[in-house]
Write a structure and sequence with these properties.
alpha+beta, binds heme D
């Protein structure tokens, strides 16, 4: 463990480094800007020519489309109507002209446009073709509706051919599902023995795993929108059903309300912008609902509002669906999906990820590009309030719940853009003065944090910083003692997780802590390039000492980890 002063210096260096234009390339930081790789593989037609269109060959058009979807669409939108980046519709691009576009792509802007040319990430030829491409009408990727979903849907093991009880000896509630991002797989790892019990082939770069309320079925969603449903009761846990629900997706969840356990699954997609409700035993698609519509405040039409985080209410038969660009949170009532009732809550634009408070009644979710967190009361299906987090780009994952020595129950989020961790009061009953306010802002390692984590039996708050430009910081984790948070400037301990992993090559980043079921140890991914060694480091929560390094040639690019019990019960 290192002293605060060293880390203070590192944090300062990191904050200076963050002022530089964003670097792109095949790095985790670049991977963080949505990269619509699957969409990039689609063949699209050149839209009808307009007078004055630049000359572009079909081969150039298809190359530019791929580049655009992989590198630009995440910020500027698939249809170029703008999202966090500016609109690039032809009325704008034609007015600016070819030279302007070429130079803008080459040099970037202080407003956040990366310097694709001078950073060496795009060649002159690619920039030339991209500048010409932007002067032509954008192509429209195909829709993906019920017929396509049904065609992709497979039940590999029929429901009546599946076991009626658990057929293996695994301690299922303490199993971890670990994303092996670039391998297109998940590893199921036993929480007690640290053995990989199974590697399951999944969609491309699985984003998250979620578990059915009973703990039996594990669902994964790939960026290519493929869902795998894995039956953990089988002697050899395997995929029993799968489906592809779109071209690009990030979220999947299952029904949790009493009486509806394991009954439905839901998944949301980035393209097409929609969600689908499926049968919880077979993944049969039952209902597809578009999220296209009006932005919550300006009431202007948005053609591609992406579905971000989805969680399942514990208080009502409802799924809670974040619609990013329109800033709406949908409470989708699944008690009667033929007569679907959806409560649309006006929240804030650019909704991304979030989680419940410790009572599971309130859902706190980041509108990240607006530096805000929206609070939803899932019992009343209503917006409680929207909070400025006092930091830059909140990114909570599911957040962390703590019992603050001074302010009572609080929920935490760290930030991508700075070192702060906002603690928000979540107890309107006993701590009304603190409820839904940032009661404290901690300073952790530096910007580039993605996830915070704690556990009801732990006295610690862990904060990662995987996207920090400083290699030492991005390989470390800050730990705050919850009992000391009443001090003026709470100190933290630095765990050099990357160093503990003992990896000789590459520049691995340490990402996403996840507790075991008991809350006595926390696992971190040491995420290296796909041709280099990666690891999972297990830390003893009580002593903050290294407990185990899990290494295996199969552990390729581990990122998210999902403990079965904590995930199904929303414990964090
Ligand atoms: Fe994630 C959660 C979207 C990049 C690891 N990520 C989420 C969620 C969304 C999302 C919408 C919430 C899902 C839910 O709760 O239903 N993530 C995106 C992106 O659009 C983005 C920025 C770029 C992209 O092209 O995908 C992106 N995410 C990343 C990464 O680069 C990470 C670090 C590594 C990886 O595996 O790709 C990453 N995201 C994660 C993880 C979670 C997640 C581990 C779940 C955290 C949790 O504790 O619940």
């Amino acid at each position: 463990m290192k002293s605060m002063s060293t880390i203070g210096r590192l944090a300062l260096l990191a904050s200076v480094a963050q002022d530089k234009p964003k670097g792109h390339g095949d790095t985790p930081a670049a991977a963080y800007e949505p990269s619509l790789n699957t969409l990039g593989q689609l063949q699209v037609e050149i839209p009808g020519r307009k007078p004055g269109d630049p000359v572009i060959t079909p081969a150039e058009f298809s190359k530019a489309t791929q580049l655009y979807f992989e590198r630009c669409a995440g910020c500027h939108g698939v249809l170029r109507k703008g999202a966090t980046g500016k609109a690039l519709t032809t009325d704008i691009t034609r007015e600016n002209g070819y030279e302007y576009l070429r130079d803008f792509i080459t040099y970037g802007s202080p407003g956040g446009m990366p310097n694709w040319g001078t950073s060496g990430d795009m060649t002159e030829d690619n920039i030339d073709v991209m500048a010409r491409y932007l002067l032509i009408e954008p192509p429209q990727p195909p829709e993906y509706g019920m017929p396509e979903m049904r065609e992709s849907w497979k039940v590999l093991v029929a429901v009546d051919a599946r076991p009626t009880k658990q057929m293996n000896d695994f301690d299922l509630d303490n199993l971890f599902s670990v994303t092996l991002r670039d391998a297109g797989q998940v590893a199921l790892i036993d929480g007690a023995t640290y053995e990989i019990v199974k590697i399951v082939d999944t969609g491309y770069a699985v984003h998250i795993s979620r578990i059915s309320a009973s703990g039996r079925y594990l669902f994964t969603i790939g960026r290519d929108a493929r869902i795998n449903m894995i039956d953990l009761w089988m002697e050899d846990p395997s995929t029993v059903a799968e489906i592809k629900i779109g071209a690009e997706a990030r979220s999947v969840e299952t029904s949790k309300f009493e009486g509806y356990e394991d009954k439905y699954a839901i998944a949301g997609s980035y393209w097409p912008p929609q969600y689908v409700i499926m049968d919880g035993d077979t993944l049969e698609p039952l209902k597809v609902v578009s999220t296209r519509g009006m932005i919550y405040d300006t009431q202007e039409y948005h053609p591609e509002p992406r579905v971000a985080a989805i969680v399942a209410s514990h208080f009502k038969p409802e799924f809670i669906v974040n619609v990013k660009e329109t800033g709406k949170i949908l409470m989708v009532d699944y008690s009667d999906i033929k007569n679907l009732k959806v409560t649309t809550i006006e929240a804030e634009r650019f909704l991304h990820d979030g989680g419940f408070d410790s009572t599971k009644r309130y859902f706190l979710t980041a509108a990240n590009a607006r530096n805000r967190v929206a609070v939803i009361d899932t019992k009343e299906s209503k917006l409680v309030t929207i909070i400025d987090t006092e930091g830059q780009t909140p990114h909570p994952g599911r957040g962390a719940n703590l019992m603050h020595p001074k302010y009572g129950p609080v929920w935490a989020t760290s930030h991508l853009g700075d070192e702060t961790v906002a603690l928000i009061g979540t107890d309107p009953e006993s701590h009304p003065d603190q409820a839904w306010k940032v009661v404290q802002s901690l300073e952790a390692l530096g910007g580039g944090s993605l996830f915070v984590k704690s556990h009801p039996t732990s006295g610690n708050l862990y904060v990662d910083a995987p996207l920090n430009p400083d290699a030492e910081i991005s390989a470390s984790v800050a730990v705050f003692k919850v009992s000391e948070l009443d001090q003026e400037e709470p100190e933290y301990t630095v765990l050099p997780i990357g160093e503990w992993a003992g990896i000789a090559e590459g520049q691995p980043r340490v990402v996403q802590g996840e507790f075991n079921q008991e809350g006595t140890e926390i696992w971190f991914s040491v995420w290296n390039a796909k041709d280099k060694e990666s690891a999972i480091v297990v830390v003893d929560d009580r002593t903050l000492e290294l407990k185990k390094v899990i290494k295996d040639p199969a552990l390729i690019t581990p990122t998210g980890k999902f403990n079965v019990y904590n995930t199904r019960s929303d414990v964090y």
